[in-house]
Specification:
Elements: E1 8-9, E2 13-17, H1 24-34, E3 38-40, E4 43-45, E5 59-61, H2 64-72, E6 76-82, E7 85-90, H3 91-99, E8 103-106, H4 110-120, E9 124-130, H5 134-145, H6 149-163, E10 171-174, H7 178-193, E11 199-200, H8 202-209
Parallel strand pairs: 2-8, 2-9, 3-8, 4-5, 9-10
Antiparallel strand pairs: 1-11, 4-7, 6-7
Length: about 210
Amino acid sequence: MSDPKNIKRRGLMLVLSSPSGAGKTTISRELLKHEPDLSMSVSATTRKPRPGEVEGKDYFFISKEKFHEMVENDEFLEHATVFENSYGTPRGPVEAALSAGKDVLFDVDWQGTQQLRDKAKTDLVSIFVLPPSKNELERRLRTRAQDPDDVIKKRMAKASDEMSHYDSYDYIVVNIDVEESVAEVEAILHAERLRLNRREGLNSFVRVLCGEDE
């Protein structure tokens, strides 16, 4: 007998990228509050734990030797080295979540997103968050960090470089209002969950509906 409850869903990998100050972190936090089937990806890193950081929650803390071994064994979906410390997304936990119908949220830059796309293919959904204006982005950076002018200029230059890759993403959200932006990201997530290629068991369900398997 045809039962829609037998239609299962493969999870997806949701990437949120943005320049610093555009609101990506705030949107991510709100999204995680509203979506119980969504969890934040946990990266592995070779740096030492900071006070208060928890193994397996904030990061997987591993040695440089172990990190290199995982790279050699293709155990990362993406990885990079920043200021002598290496960071990477272990493939195993993400694959387990997707197979269980759970979604995983990623906070990575353009290069990390490209690596994920190469490995994840159709499992990946990417969103780039833009600020409403250059002046607003600069205002947010100054208000948030209280940095000197030379640091702000460097961050604005980096932001321009990051924003130039906007067309590599599936969706664009212009963060004028945080609540509206969260709603837009949720709408994207809900629609992507219904994509045909993520609906496991749908073919069998439809065949029964059409009388082919009776």
